[in-house]
Amino acid sequence: QVQFVESGGGLVQPGGSLRLSCEASGLIMDYAMGWFRQAPGKEREEVSCISASDGTTYYKNSVKGRFTISKGNAKHTVYLQMNSLKPEDTAVYYCAIKQSYYCEGSYASWGQGTQVSVSS
Fold this sequence. Notes:
Elements: E1 3-7, E2 10-12, E3 18-25, E4 33-38, E5 45-50, E6 57-59, E7 67-71, E8 77-82, E9 91-98, E10 107-110, E11 114-118
Parallel strand pairs: 2-11
Antiparallel strand pairs: 1-3, 3-8, 4-5, 4-9, 5-6, 7-8, 9-10, 9-11
């Protein structure tokens, strides 16, 4: 069973920054990891993903140039640096893992989520 430890969410003013961290355990394979988010009344949307094979990254169009995903030195660790945050980034962010080395297909497991709120 996969377990996730997520941290880094919080309340920030528009234009501010946050860094989300995630460490997964209980895994056997080093699959692609990423983040998705869900705001109240809205559908879940993938924000970013990083492949396990060559570090190729994916970003949702609306966060390109503002968010950066990276792997940690420890296995199954991933970060999401979020800059120039906007009110529309407000959501619960979930760390997740796919059943593939590449950023394709749906996520197989995810954590409890961390709240990100952007408001003045």
